[in-house]
From TrEMBL:
It comes from Bradyrhizobium lablabi. Keywords: Cell membrane, Cytochrome c-type biogenesis, Heme, Iron, Membrane, Metal-binding, Signal-anchor, Transmembrane, Transmembrane helix. Residues 141-163 are annotated as: Disordered. The lineage of its organism: Bacteria, Pseudomonadati, Pseudomonadota, Alphaproteobacteria, Hyphomicrobiales. Gene3D superfamilies: Nucleic acid-binding proteins (2.40.50.140). GO terms for molecular function: heme binding; metal ion binding. The keyword Transmembrane helix applies. Its main location: membrane. Residues 149-163 have a biased composition (Polar residues). Belongs to the CcmE/CycJ family. This is Cytochrome c-type biogenesis protein CcmE. SUPFAM superfamilies: Heme chaperone CcmE. Residues 1-7 are cytoplasmic. The gene is ccmE. Heme binds at H122, Y126.
Length: 163
């Protein structure tokens, strides 16, 4: 074997080892790459109780119940499925019914998601891309979700100027 053949063999072997290592890492991280799971995804995947994950969707109107010592319960829905959430702590200021939310925690054996962190959208026009995509997929997307008053004014001005 010549020097050049030996060098090419070593380089090819190195690439093969790197490819196998990358495939193993990506396979191990397959479920954690997703930012959050919707209630439909939780039902489809049959996520085992005690496994930590993020749950995202819309807070179902009329489902928010305040309990003692900062305990709250509410339903997170994605259009086709609902999942009850229990949380104890201070909710974000922008948390409200009908708005997008991402909760982090574990599913208990009774099917209730016990959240230890609740994240609400930061203003009235923001929606995580994953939530928007899930709503579009479910057919529950409203065209004015992403529109801001400034955007509407600019669009109205643009449409008037083009006529």
């Amino acid at each position: 074997m010549t020097r050049r053949q030996r060098r090419l063999t070593i380089i090819g072997g190195s690439f093969a080892v790197l490819a196998v290592a990358a495939a193993l890492v990506l396979n191990a991280m397959r479920d954690s790459i997703v930012f959050f799971s919707t209630p439909s995804m939780v039902a489809e995947k049959h996520i085992a109780p005690g496994r930590r994950f993020r749950l995202g969707g819309l807070v179902q109107p009329g489902s928010l119940v305040h309990g003692d010592n900062l305990a709250v319960t509410f339903l997170v829905a994605d259009g086709s499925a609902k999942l009850p959430v229990a949380y104890k702590g201070i909710l974000p200021d922008l948390f409200r019914e009908g708005q997008g939310v991402v909760a982090e925690g574990v599913l208990d054996p009774s099917g209730v998601f016990n959240a230890d962190a609740v994240l609400a959208k930061h203003d009235e026009t923001y929606m995580p891309k994953e939530v928007a995509d899930a709503l579009k997929k479910q057919g529950h997307w409203k065209d004015d979700y992403g529109a801001t008053p400034d955007t509407n004014a600019k669009q109205a001005g643009t449409q008037g100027a083009s006529r």
